[in-house]
Specification:
281 residues, five-stranded mixed β-sheet
Length: 281
């Protein structure tokens, strides 16, 4: 079997890249209510403010025009659509914070530290956009197993893949990439107790010792690994280049699909969020 039980770290990839310039609106202290009734100045909640700022800079699959969030893509994976809710902290927001932090040499904790807020302000003022396209990975364990890399421009990569065998199955769920390595010798034990030491390339860890990486097999499309998501070596580097720290990886038995993007959504105000919190008690 081989590959993907334990982590033996190699050299990590450089995180930061040069960001292109683009004019964007100045940061808001207070803003009008986006919809319903007369305008009123209210301060957005910290979560909503993060979503607006990250959307303006291109770190989310939605954009923000000052009033509404909207999708640039005509079709989106339903999992991504369900993970974006204005004013609600989800795994999607935390993954975007990880990507932003890594791009700026900050700890990728998935939370908004004072240093991250200052850096967001600086990027908004300077018009520095996300230097790479937002991407999302979907691993379909339906037969034959396939991996998809999606962005607003469509499916960037698609390939047969292998996930974990019974007893070492790849865990279903959605997780952010937290470590990327170009090369590593993975060491551990097979299910029969024999040791292995397998050299692998183009590695993106997303859940414990589970990673997307290249590994040579005679065939692909069904469980063969010890938990990792293996792709043919010929496509491994391309997929690696499309991912970032923070890129979300979904593993599921449900086949991959795309659905029409939701209609533009006006962000809730701090007042409406506070009212919801009170009503929920």
């Amino acid at each position: 079997l081989g590959v993907c039980a334990f982590v033996s770290y190699g050299s990590a990839e450089p995180a930061a890249k040069a960001a292109p310039q683009r004019a964007i609106a100045a940061r808001r202290g207070v803003r009008p209510v986006a919809s319903g009734g007369p305008a009123a100045a209210v301060a957005p909640s910290p979560t909503l403010r993060l979503q607006e700022d990250l959307a303006r800079l291109g770190y989310l699959p939605v954009a923000f025009n000052g009033q509404s969030f909207y999708y640039a893509a005509a079709d989106v994976p339903p999992q991504i659509a369900s993970l974006f809710q204005p004013g609600v902290d989800t795994e999607l927001l935390r993954s975007a914070l990880m990507t932003f932090a890594t791009d700026h040499g900050l700890p990728a904790t998935g939370s908004a530290t004072p240093a991250l807020w200052r850096t967001l302000d600086d990027d908004l003022a300077a018009g520095r956009m996300d230097p790479h396209a937002f991407t999302y990975v979907y691993v379909a364990k339906s037969s034959p197993e396939r991996i998809y890399v999606w962005s607003a421009s469509g499916v960037l990569s698609e390939s047969l893949t292998n996930t974990g065998v019974a007893g070492a199955a790849t865990t279903d769920g959605t997780y952010p990439v937290y470590l990327r390595l170009t090369y590593q010798v993975m060491r551990g034990k097979n299910l029969d107790g024999t040791p292995y030491a397998d050299p692998v390339h183009w590695i993106s860890y997303f859940h414990g010792g589970d990673a997307v990486h290249g590994f040579a097999r005679q065939s692909y499309g069904y469980p063969q690994s010890l938990g990792c998501v293996e792709v043919p070596t010929g496509v491994a580097q391309r997929i690696f280049d499309e991912l970032q720290i923070g890129t979300l990886v979904t593993v599921s038995t449900v086949p991959f699909s795309l659905t029409p993007a939701p209609e533009p959504t006006a962000g809730p105000t701090a007042a409406s969020l506070a009212r919801r919190a009170v009503e929920a008690r």
